[in-house]
């Protein structure tokens, strides 16, 4: 995967050797030029979504006094990873199948301050007419067995092109800062052990995930208490 670098996404073209000539369908060979134009559409979709997120972030900060979005990261899936995923799905290697069956070619991670901010953004996405929420997988309410927590959304973003409007799919992963730290550390540990992690480490990772969630909840309670005290102080001043 190529992640955001400065203001540009680095896009690699697809080559026949990414698949292996024996497995490469003749139809896909004929469509390589078409496919090499597709990542640009996903890049434009991510830029369009980033602009929308920027507006949302600014409005919510003005409304609530703080921005619920700490930071974002974007990436476009590597061609080889896309084709490997298509093989695992057992679908024909065609450009149409890439567009219709692989939903995470373009990806965005949104890291929020609190869990409630994640669901606030989800409801906002659902209400917008310029975004289509296609699928939601809630790994916060129902964490994965290893303790992974995140809210995954597949949505579509419209691109107004000369040929007309084209809706491009983007996968969004929304996490809190604590969840993002846990996921990053879990990735580092699995990479170091080449996925052969001792059994007791799995248990400790799950416990760490539960601790991260507890920390999120504690910080939320503290925020509510601070906001309540601030509101009471302002009310007292106004009544004097």
TrEMBL record:
Pfam family, one: RelA_SpoT
Stored InterPro entries: GTP_Pyrophosphokinase, NT_sf, RelA_SpoT
Record-linked SMART domains: RelA_SpoT (SM00954)
RelA/SpoT domain span: 74-197
Pathway info: Purine metabolism; ppGpp biosynthesis; ppGpp from GTP: step 1/2
Name this protein carries in UniProt: GTP pyrophosphokinase
Organism: Paenibacillus macquariensis
